[in-house]
Specification:
Elements lengths: L25 H8 L4 H15 L1 H8 L2 H68 L3 H17 L4 E11 L17 H14 L3 E4 L2 E2 L6 E4 L2 E4 L2 E2 L4 E6 L5 H7 L1 H10 L4 E12 L12 H4 L1
Antiparallel strand pairs: 1-7, 1-8, 2-3, 2-7, 4-5, 5-6
Helix pairs in contact: 4-5, 6-7, 6-8
Protein name: DUF881 domain-containing protein
InterPro entries: DUF881
Pfam family, one: DUF881
Length: 294
């Protein structure tokens, strides 16, 4: 009734052909217990320790190579800034020197022009004295004065009108800075409007206009008779002071002033009872007979 003796094992004894249960699971247990190889585990642990250590983070962030690179970059930027500042100073000094030379040349030109005007006045006076001595000379004198007045080579005086034009008070703040300044075309339109209104002689800032006069702009500077002008521009015209201002305002000259006023260009028209216009400084070209030219 009992079990066979060879099938029975004593309590606590192990069977010779059987593997223990926990030994067969040792490989899986090791895999789950240690998923990383020991070397990788130590490296990961070291990185975790360094990330938790602020001194280690600062050391990694500011490595010697990075510090040297930043210092070199700062040095280069400093040197570049100093060089740029030095070049700007040199350019400014050169510009001031050029401006001073231009002003000196302009002053010298004005002095020479005054001398020329004085000498021309002496010549005109001597001519007038000599021509008055005879009847034929008197006739020539009157004809010469008529021609000189038409050519603009003779000073004239009388009633007329003055037109003043000036740039806007702050051209750079205007919507169109280029249009907020007096242009050469503005002066030409004013001059043409005055001729059309009946002007007999015209000058701009003391420069008498003739049939050969040019009004142009170069480098944002208006030139009249090749002389640079600065605002405000005083345009004076000899003519009937009663009708000339009205005719000018109602003509194309007045229309131009109203258009310029829309860009804040300042202008003023005034009748004058007495104006004096100087003679024009010009070199006249005379025609010659072909035989004389050869």
């Amino acid at each position: 009734m009992g079990r066979r003796a060879d099938d029975m094992t004593a309590p606590g004894a192990k069977s010779a052909g059987t593997r223990p249960r926990d030994a067969s699971m040792s490989l899986l247990n090791n895999i789950f217990a240690q998923p990383l190889e020991p070397g990788y585990e130590r490296a990961a642990q070291r990185r975790r320790n360094e990330s938790e250590d602020p001194h280690a983070r600062s050391k990694n962030r500011f490595s010697p190579a990075l510090v040297i690179g930043m210092l070199a970059l700062g040095l280069l930027l400093t040197v570049a800034a100093l060089q740029a500042q030095g070049q700007a100073g040199i350019a400014s000094a050169e510009r001031e020197g050029l401006i001073e030379r231009i002003r000196s040349q302009e002053s010298q030109t004005e002095r020479l022009q005054d001398t020329v005007d004085e000498l021309q006045a002496e010549i005109n006076e001597l001519e007038d004295v000599e021509l008055r001595k005879t009847a034929e000379g008197q006739r020539v004198r009157e004809e010469l004065q008529r021609l000189q007045q038409a050519a603009g080579t003779l000073p004239v005086s009388g009633p007329g009108v003055s037109v003043i034009l000036d740039d806007a008070e702050n051209p750079e703040a205007a919507e169109r800075p280029d249009m907020a300044r007096v242009l050469d075309v503005d002066l030409r339109n004013v001059v043409n409007g005055l001729w059309l209104a009946g002007a007999e002689a015209i000058s701009i800032n003391g420069q008498r206009l003739t049939a050969l006069s040019a009004i142009r702009i170069a480098d944002n500077v208006i030139h009249v008779q090749n002389q640079p002008m600065r605002p405000p521009y005083h345009v004076k015209a000899i003519g009937d002071s009663q009708t000339l201002p009205h005719e000018f305002n109602e003509g194309p000259g007045g229309d131009m002033l109203r258009v310029a006023a829309s860009y804040d260009v300042e202008s003023f028209v005034r009748a004058e009872e007495s104006l004096v216009l100087p003679a024009a400084s010009m070199d006249l070209l005379y025609a010659k007979h072909p035989r004389e030219a050869s």
